[in-house]
Specification:
By secondary structure, the protein is an alpha/beta fold. It has 15 helices and 14 strands. The structure holds ligand T4K.
Length: 410
C-alpha cells in the first residue's frame, strides 16, 4: 500500500491540481483577435469586441441588456448604486466575500440571512424576520449555479417594497424554471473571472430587462459621461477592455463543449465517490440547464471517518488543492466579524454547511486519470482514517509523520 503524502510518502501529483484552472478556447482565434485589437488601435472604452461580447451574452441569456464590466465585484457595486440601495440589504453569508463587500464598500450594511440546508441558497423563511425600516433590498446568490427560489424572494420583496438583484457569478448558461439566468430580479451579475468556466481573464456583466437601469449602469461604468464633456451621474471606471472581450468571445465559442466536459467530470467524480459513507456530491437539476462548473462535495462528519478539514489536509499534501468554499462564511470574516460578533446565532445552517463543503478540481486541465487519482486518495484516506487521525491532529497541511507511522504503510 502506498504511504499517503500526509504520512511522509511522495505526493500523488507532482504538480498541483487546482480548483479554478482557466479554460482556454481556440488560441489561434484568440491571437487573431489580439492582432485585430492592435491593428485597430482601439483598446478599451466600448470597443467593437466588447460590443460583440455583450451581444453574445444577450443571445445566450435572452435578457434585453448586457453591460460588460471589468469584474463582477465592480458590476455588483455599480448595480447596487444604480438601484439606489441604501441602509440595509439582506444577503447570504454563505457566498464569496465580494457579495458582502460590494455593499459595505458603499457603507450599506449587509444583513446576513441563513441559507436553506438543502439548496445552500438564501432561505426565504429567514429573510422576512430580518426586514427593518432601513431595509432597501435583497441580493440572492445562485450558489454553484443552482438558482435561488426567485418566486418566494420576489414575493417577499413586493410585500415589503424592496428591490431584488442576484449575484449570478456562477450561473452563466444555467436556467431556472425554463428561463435563463440573467432574467431574474431587477438585474443579475455574472463573473468572467479566470476561474469561471467562461472567462475573459477578468470580467463581469450586469444583465437586465430594464431599459432605464441598463442606460444608468452603462453611464456609471464610464464616469457618468453621456457626451464628450457632459457627466450626468456619479460614475467610476468599470469598463471591460478589448483584450478581455477577445478572451471572453473566444471562451464563449467553446461554451457548449466546456459544459459537456464539466458534466462528464462531474459524473466521473459522482460515480467514483458513490457509496462512501458521509460523502455526497451536491446535485444539479437535470430538468434545467446546469453548467456543472463546480464539483462540490458534502462531507458529513457524523458518518464519514474523516471530516472535511481532515480530508482537505490529506488532499493538499497530495498536491490536490481542494477548496473549502465558502468557509467560514462572510460573517466570520472582517470587517463583519467585528461589526456583527453575534451574527452566527442566526446562521446555524450557514455555519454547519460551511464546515462541510469541499470543492474539487475540474475544468479542461483535469483529466479522467486525475479524477480517478483524486478519488483514490479520498477512498484510501477514509479506509486508513484511524492511522491518519493522530497525524491530522497536528497543525498545518504538510506535517512530518512519526517514522513508526510511515512504516505502517510500507
Ligand atoms: N460573487 C460570487 C458568488 C463569486 O464567487 C465571486 C468570485 C464574485 C462575486 C466576484 O467575482 P469577480 O470580481 O472575481 O469577477 C476565486 C476567484 O478569484 C473569484 O473570482 C471567485 N468568485 C472565487 C469563488 O474563487 P480565490 O480567492 O479563491 O482565488 P485564488 O486566487 O485562490 O484562485 C483559485 C484557484 O485558481 C487557485 O488554486 C489557482 C487557480 N488559478 C487562478 C487564477 C486567477 C489559476 O490556475 N489561474 C489563474 O489565472 O477566489
Amino acid at each position: 500500500m502506498r504511504t499517503p503524502a500526509i504520512a511522509g510518502g511522495q505526493p500523488r501529483f507532482p504538480e498541483p491540481l487546482h480548483v479554478g484552472r482557466p479554460n482556454i478556447g481556440d488560441t489561434r482565434r484568440l491571437f487573431e483577435r489580439f492582432e485585430g485589437i492592435v491593428q485597430r488601435r482601439w483598446f478599451t472604452n466600448d470597443g467593437p469586441l466588447v460590443r460583440e461580447f455583450e451581444q453574445k451574452i444577450v443571445e445566450i441569456t435572452g435578457a434585453k441588456h448586457c453591460i460588460s464590466l471589468c469584474n463582477a465585484t465592480i458590476a455588483l457595486e455599480i448595480a447596487i448604486r444604480a438601484l439606489e440601495l441604501r441602509g440595509e440589504v439582506i444577503v447570504p453569508s454563505y457566498t464569496f466575500v465580494a457579495t458582502a463587500h460590494a455593499l459595505q464598500w458603499q457603507e450599506i450594511t449587509p444583513v446576513f440571512a441563513d441559507i436553506h440546508p438543502n439548496t445552500l441558497n438564501l432561505d426565504p423563511d429567514c429573510i422576512e424576520r430580518l426586514i427593518t425600516p432601513r431595509t432597501t433590498g435583497i441580493i440572492g446568490v445562485h450558489t454553484w449555479g443552482r438558482p435561488c427560489d426567485t418566486g418566494a424572494i420576489g414575493k417577499i420583496a413586493t410585500q415589503h417594497d424592496l428591490k431584488v438583484m442576484y449575484d449570478a457569478a456562477h450561473a452563466l448558461g444555467c436556467s431556472h424554471e425554463g428561463r435563463m439566468i440573467g432574467n431574474f430580479g431587477e438585474c443579475e451579475v455574472f463573473s468572467f473571472h479566470a476561474t469561471k468556466f467562461i472567462n475573459s481573464f477578468e470580467g463581469g456583466a450586469i444583465l437586465t430587462n430594464n431599459d432605464a437601469l441598463a442606460e444608468k449602469t452603462r453611464l456609471m461604468r464610464n464616469f457618468g459621461f453621456v457626451d464628450f464633456d457632459r457627466v450626468v451621474y456619479l460614475g467610476t471606471n468599470g469598463k471591460m477592455t478589448e483584450v478581455c472581450a477577445a478572451m471572453g468571445l473566444t471562451s464563449l465559442e467553446s461554451m457548449d463543449e466546456v459544459i459537456r466536459l464539466n458534466r462528464d467530470n462531474y459524473e466521473s467524480y459522482k460515480c467514483e465517490l458513490e457509496g462512501l459513507p458521509g460523502i455526497r456530491l451536491i446535485d444539479y437539476n437535470q430538468a434545467e440547464k446546469p453548467n456543472y462548473h463546480y464539483v462540490v462535495v458534502e462531507v458529513d462528519a457524523s458518518r464519514s471517518p474523516l471530516d472535511r478539514d481532515e480530508l482537505v489536509k490529506v488532499l493538499h499534501a497530495e498536491n490536490v488543492l481542494a477548496r473549502k468554499y465558502f468557509w467560514p462564511g462572510c460573517h466570520r470574516m472582517e470587517p463583519y466579524k467585528s461589526l456583527f460578533p453575534n451574527a452566527y446565532l442566526l446562521l446555524p445552517h450557514t455555519e454547519f454547511r460551511a464546515a462541510q463543503m469541499m470543492v474539487l478540481p475540474t475544468s479542461q486541465s483535469v483529466s479522467k486519470n486525475n479524477i480517478a487519482g483524486v478519488c483514490e486518495i479520498i477512498k484510501a484516506a477514509l479506509a486508513q482514517a484511524e492511522q491518519l487521525k493522530p497525524i491530522l491532529k497536528q497543525r498545518g497541511p504538510k506535517v512530518k509523520p512519526p517514522v513508526v507511522f510511515a512504516k505502517a504503510f510500507e
